[in-house]
Amino acid sequence: MTLRIRDLNKHYGETPVFANVTLDVAPGEFVAIVGESGVGKSTLLNCMAGLDHWDNGTVQIEGVDIGVLNEDARALLRREKVGFVFQAFHVLPHLDVFQNVALPLLLLGQPDDARVQAMLEAVGLGSLGHRLPQQLSGGQLQRVAIARALVHKPRLLLADEPTGNLDPTTAALVMNALVQQCRAQHASLVLVTHSVLATELADRVLHLSANGLGLL
Ligand SMILES: Nc1ncnc2c1ncn2[C@@H]1O[C@H](COP(=O)(O)OP(=O)(O)O)[C@@H](O)[C@H]1O
Ligand SMILES: [Mg+2]
Fold it and tell me: Which of 78, 83, 208, 213 is deepest in the core (most CB within 10 A)?
């Protein structure tokens, strides 16, 4: 399994955020997670990436139990095996588009300009590498974020409402680019979304509620 979660629980004080979350995501599988606002979707996704802490249960990425890793080891594992796309684009403003997408490869010590250019072309931004983020639209910025999240060929892509800030037409374009690229790279995708298009494209749609993660 690319991602294996068992009986994950998290509280803030007395208040449970989520409980009894169990999930297996196979290589190349696309799982969409839906649920009411405030039910803990973002928190759960952050736990899957080892960006947040939980109370009980286990999270394994490619067989590695990330709960026992320290912060440095988690960061290294993320750098190699995980990509993340947020609702807000989180593109670095002082780097141009090409440099933004190149960054994960530089951090891994594996610069590869041809790969960066291929990723830009794959998301329809092949001629915009020299632009600064401020010269792009929201849909273009999110495609930069997608290219950056996938440039190092992670086995697992986690996306938290990546089209939540976009108009419907742009959202469909961005969602298709995201899913197509994950499929092309055979990356597993866990996507938190309210998008009907996304749930139609997904292999499975799961509903997060106070009872855990279940079929809709
Ligand atoms: N740092 C925090 N301290 C206390 N409560 C928090 C904190 N972060 C999030 N929450 C609460 O946890 C719940 C889940 O939040 P979140 O994961 O953002 O939900 P969703 O993404 O499904 O909208 C919400 O009720 C939110 O208010
Ligand atoms: Mg959220």
Answer: 83
Domain that holds residue 157: 29-36+69-215
Q: Is the CB of 17 under 6 A from ligand 1?
A: yes
Assign 161 to helix, strand or coil. coil
Residue 2 falls inside a structural domain: no
The CA distance from 116 to 129, in Å, is: 9
- Cβ of 161 closer than 6 Å to ligand 1, yes or no, is no
Instruction: Give me the CATH number covering residue 166.
Output: 3.40.50.300
Give yes or no for a contact between 52 and 74, defined as CB atoms under 8 angstroms apart.
no
What does the pLDDT read at residue 6? 97
The residue nearest atom 3 of ligand 1, judged by CA position, is 12
Residue 171's pLDDT is 92
Q: What is the pTM of this model?
A: 0.95
Mutate to test the pocket of ligand 1, among 12, 42, 208, 213 (most ligand atoms within 8 A of CB): 12
The answer to the question of residue 44 being in a domain is: no
Of the candidates 127, 79, 130, 84, the one whose C-alpha atom is nearest the C-alpha of residue 107 is 79
Question: 41 CB under 6 A from ligand 1?
Answer: yes
pLDDT of residue 87: 87
Per-block mean pLDDT, blocks of 10 residues, the chain (216 long): 96 91 97 95 96 96 97 96 92 97 97 97 96 96 96 97 92 93 97 94 95 83
Based on the structure, what is the number of domains in the chain?
Answer: 1
Residue 95 lies in a domain: yes
Cβ-based neighbour number of residue 152 at 10 Å:
21
Ligand 1, pocket-test mutation among 39, 43, 190, most atoms within 8 A of CB: 43
